[in-house]
Amino acid sequence: MPYGKESKNALVKLIGGKSTKIYVYGQDQFERYVGDIYCDTVFIQEEMLRNGHAWHFKNYDRRPEFSAWERKARAARKGLWASRNPEKPWHWRRDERNERHDTIEWETLFAKVIACFVAVAERLFMGGILLARRNLLKLAILLGLMELVIIFMEQ
């Protein structure tokens, strides 16, 4: 994820090895707990937003101070805002899910081609059957398909 490692490192600097308190104030649509995080007297969300290490996700929290902290970090080009066009994490996750889905489809196709190749090869070679021209052609086509699938998977 763009800027993900930097953001994690900033969070670790703030809370790493220290006790934190989470004041839970509700649950989201997925029944996950939502709350404010403090480490000693430091309000973690504020620090992360002020220094440009986090996005204010307005769907979950509409507090105006959160928007103001993000706006000031953007204006000062701090953290992730140093980039001209930072990618929103929820867009990145969506694209990653779609990319994984495409990869799974190719892996499924590849597995089907391999299974077909094995089935044809077993039929051709079981019982010492001689390879007729049409069987050789089928075998060549299957090998060509396998090669194409491998090429596409490497891209």
From TrEMBL:
Pfam name, any one: SNase
Superkingdom of origin: Eukaryota
Coiled-coil portions: none
InterPro entries tied to this protein: SNase_OB-fold_sf, Staphylococal_nuclease_OB-fold
All copies of domain TNase-like, residue ranges: 1-83
A GO cellular component entry from the record: cytoplasm
PROSITE patterns membership: TNASE_3
Keywords: Membrane, Transmembrane, Transmembrane helix
Gene3D superfamilies: 2.40.50.90
Transmembrane stretches, start-end: 136-153
Protein name: TNase-like domain-containing protein
